[in-house]
Amino acid sequence: MDRRMSRGYQQTEDLSGAEYLASIYGTEKDKVNCSFYFKIGACRHGDKCSRTHHRPTFSPTILLQNFYHNPVVDVRQADAFDKVGKKDPEEQKYFDEFYEEVFTELERKYGEIDEMNVCENIGEHMIGNVYVKFVREEDAEKAVKDLQNRW
Length: 151
Fold this sequence. Notes:
By secondary structure, the chain is mostly helical. Mean pLDDT is 79; it is low at 1-10. Helix content is 41%, strand content 10%. It has a 3-stranded antiparallel β-sheet with strand order 1-3-2, covered by helices on one side. The protein has a domain at 56-147: RRM (RNA recognition motif) domain (Alpha-Beta Plaits). The protein has helices spanning 3-13, 17-24, 35-40, 80-83, 89-110, 137-147, and strands at residues 61-64, 113-118, 130-134.
């Protein structure tokens, strides 16, 4: 047996059951909880996933699922993969206007934003996802409650 493997095995062998489960929670080794959902709040299998999707009870980050619609990339088109990441000036202008409008409105209504990310991944579970991380959890909670009735 490889020394690295035996050392790693020994390390997990020294842990109690609860300690071992805590050490693998949210990782690929966790066979109960979905590591993809844990990391990004989305899973390509959706409700058909064999693993559990835990929605956090509180977080400074909110997810606006499939919120950004790229006018150039349509996932139904055969050349969608070729278009991802290649921006023409018109598409960049559209994105910049979208980003500025959403960032400005959310920050004005709910509180200071630490960062905002827009997914360009064309997997159905991620395309157009917008992740907004507020400085304060309370602001994120307020945004979630208000936006559930809007979008």
